Amino acid sequence: MKLLTKLGIPVVAALALLxxxxxxxxxxxxxxxxxGWVEPVVQQIEGWTVHxxxxxxxxxxxxxxxxxxxxxGNHLQRVAILVPEKQLADLRKVVIRIEWSxxxxxxxxxxxGVQWLENNGYDPRLxxxxxxxxxxxxxxxxxxxxxxxxxxxxxxHAYHDQILDxxxxxxxxxxxxxxxxxxxxxxxxxxxxxxxxxATTNHKEYFAEATEAFLYRNDFYPFVAGELKVHDPKAFDLxxxxxxx
Length: 245
Hints:
By secondary structure, this protein is an alpha/beta fold. It has helices spanning 11-23, 62-82, 85-91, 114-119, 141-146, 150-164, 169-181, 203-215, 225-231, 233-243, and strands at residues 41-45, 48-52, 96-98, 109-110, 130-132, 187-188, 194-195. The chain folds into two domains: 41-146, no CATH class; 165-243, no CATH class. The model is unreliable at 1-25 (pLDDT under 50).
């Protein structure tokens, strides 16, 4: 038989409510613990401001860190060669953070907003930056074979957000047209498999994927600019408008 309070609430539940109220008197949601925060060292690499995890500069990971930073420089050199001067100047305003090993985040990514970072306990200083949470991924053979333009891809997200705007009507229109045609539903992956193109995710990935193909090389068909021109002429023309001839 359950014991009830005068208000008809089970005694156990009432005690739980009392404990919670005392522990959190304001009723505010408790902030998550800081997860993966570092105090980075600021460096300049190929014209970009790079916030470097100190673990990559000294101690047991210094050798791996030197290799990762060299590889990051390699990526950025290619971006500097491929992107026209005007657009390159804007890309170089994007801060890059590189860490030895974030405890929760794996994939390289761009952080457009602060709320998601704060909600998960991640460093809010990452907002509007390209984030490399696992430095070893930069010189992973499998990563290089799969995604040789990964830094360009993430910088494209930053350009889309900060220069063009994520609500850019031309990009959304091109994405919707491509999805209606279904040309990206099943394409060749770099390893020969037939899969849905990553561009089908949303208009943001559509733009970043088209940028890879137009400026360099993608891991999904269309792999290069000539194939993009045939497969998705609207995307090709949009890339010319945004990135130049």
